[in-house]
Write a structure and sequence with these properties.
Length: 272
């Protein structure tokens, strides 16, 4: 089993602000803007508000407009837009080729991380907590059941997904991954899910910039794509790459145990 640390959601270039840690601890990853897709921010509702409303509240100066489309991928939070919804994740181009070159397939697990910052509710509206720094945090997981690389063989439930178009499949290395029904190994855990905030999900080392991570010592002994032994600094942090979406970690029992332990706390109610 390989573990993939996968960067997803708003960043400084795509979206322009962190995704919010909601007051109840929900890590609400905001999908990046896209002119190629068909789902709008106003179509996606969370706790009575559209994602567009949430974006306007936390970032009043946002460039995102009410009619903008977004790239809902990975899609692991059921927003109720499909009756027969399935958890799916798509990738294409050089990023997908990177996954293929590392043999990512059934049984492997994606741990999605992104840039987050704590919010509070004031007068019924969300805002970022002052002086709280943004951090890289794990916000969801996805165990691969199957990889779908042919447009003509896609199940009908895939039709809404942004990667399920003839245009994307006409290019090289487009793929849609479907999630396992149950996590293996994982007792009765589902094969995908999102997290609420918990300290053990934070990657960023306390007091450092968000791309400088606190990883367990045993990570020094395994290969991580886009990184080398020099990524581990004497100051006690791991300097995560500023480019690349998918960081593939070589198979290792301790890494697998670490990943499964992050997934095991997904029901935690602990808030920051």
């Amino acid at each position: 089993m390989k573990i993939v640390l996968s960067r997803k959601g708003f960043d400084s270039s795509n979206g322009g602000c962190p995704s919010p840690i909601l007051p109840d601890g929900t890590l609400l990853s905001l999908p990046i803007p896209s002119k190629k897709d068909s789902i709008k921010y106003v179509d996606l509702m969370h706790d009575g508000k559209s994602l567009f409303e949430i974006i306007k509240e936390i970032d009043p100066r946002t460039r995102i407009k009410e009619n903008w489309f977004c790239h809902l991928d990975p899609d692991i939070r059921d927003y109720g837009i499909m009756e027969d919804w399935l958890a799916l994740f798509g990738q294409e181009g050089s990023s997908q080729k990177h996954l293929e070159n590392h043999g990512i397939g059934p049984g492997d697990i994606f741990l999605f991380f992104g840039w987050f910052r704590q919010t509070e509710s004031v007068g019924g509206k969300l805002r970022f907590v002052k002086n709280e720094q943004g951090k890289h945090i794990l916000w969801g997981y996805f165990q691969v059941d199957a990889a779908h690389r042919s447009y003509g063989e896609l199940p009908s439930q895939f039709s809404y997904h942004p990667h399920a178009t003839p245009e994307r499949f006409s290019r090289k290395s487009n793929c849609i991954y479907s999630a396992a029904e149950k996590l293996s190994p994982g007792k009765d855990s589902p094969g995908y899910g999102t997290f609420k905030y918990h300290p053990s999900l934070v990657l960023t080392k306390e007091g450092f910039s968000r791309s400088r991570w606190q990883l367990p010592e045993f990570f020094k002994d395994v290969g991580i794509s886009y990184h080398s032994s020099s990524s581990f600094k004497e100051e006690g942090y791991f300097d995560s790459a500023k480019i690349g979406q998918e960081f593939v970690v070589a198979e290792d029992g301790k890494v697998t145990e670490w990943a499964l332990s992050r997934i095991a706390i997904r029901e935690s109610k602990q808030c920051p």
